[in-house]
Amino acid sequence: MSVLRPQDQLPGLNAATILLVGKEDALLQQLADSMLKEDCASSLKVHLAHSLPLPSNVNRPRIDLIVFVINLHSKYSLQNVEESLRHVDATFFLGKVGFLVTGAGRDSHCSVHRSTVLKLARAYRSPLLFCDLEVESFRVTMAQRLVRMLQICAGHVPGVSALNLLSLMRSSENPCLEDL
Fold first, then answer.
1. Residue 26: in which H helix or E strand, if any?
2. Sign, CA torsion 165/38/154/26
3. pLDDT tens by residue, the chain, 180 residues
4. Which three-class secondary structure string do you get for 84-137?
5. Which residues face 88 on adjacent strands?
6. In angstroms, rounded to a whole number, what is the distance separating the alpha carbons of residues 35 and 144?
7. DSSP letters along 42-58, please?
8. Sign of torsion, CA 149 154 158 162?
9. How many CB atoms lie within 10 A of CB 108?
């Protein structure tokens, strides 16, 4: 079993790489395309994967941010993410992993409850973002947010680290019981 580690590769000069993991091929590709259209000072690379582990024989750049995409309309989507998480080194969870939940706009058809993904994000102490990726304007806004997060995680924003970002994104409305 191959575990994905943040320091597997040396950082590229002015390069930033995000890995989007999820089963929603068309939506992930549209999100990737929106991200690549963003004005970014870094050389932006977006990789898509159905699940982890990634093939070990592939030459790939260092991954600066992993975003696991969960569709609330598919229990299989959640199961895929839970299984993939086992293949991520613990040091990635120091601000370089996030969860993106889609399908929240149609609550009546959800197979996965929001509280389930909230517990998952809390368990891994990682940011949780909600976005209906099927709506273009929402997708474009999320692409902008992810590009900014990626720049921070890649170390391209002076004075802000991935750990700073993680603490800024923690919800002050719903603190974890361990934090009280």
1. helix 25-37
2. positive
3. 577 766 666 666 789 999 999 999 999 999 999 999 998 878 999 999 999 998 877 777 889 999 999 999 999 999 999 999 999 999 999 899 999 999 877 666 788 988 999 999 999 999 999 999 999 999 999 999 999 999 999 989 888 888 887 777 765 445 554 443
4. HHCCECHHHHCCCEEEEEECCCCHHHCCCCHHHHHHHHHHCCCCEEECCCCCHH
5. 4
6. 7
7. SEEEEEEESSSSPPTTS
8. positive
9. 4
CA distance 93 to 125: 7
Nearest residue to 64 (alpha-carbon basis) of 151, 161, 178: 151
Which tokens belong to 177? 């019981």
40/121 Cα distance (integer angstroms): 28
Whole-model pTM: value is 0.88
Compute the distance between CA of residue 40 and CA of residue 173 in angstroms, rounded to an integer.
Answer: 32
Distance CA 70, CA 101 (A): 5
Which single residue is written with the structure tokens 């696991």? Answer: 68
Q: Residue 125 half-sphere exposure, CB side, CA atoms within 13 Å?
A: 16
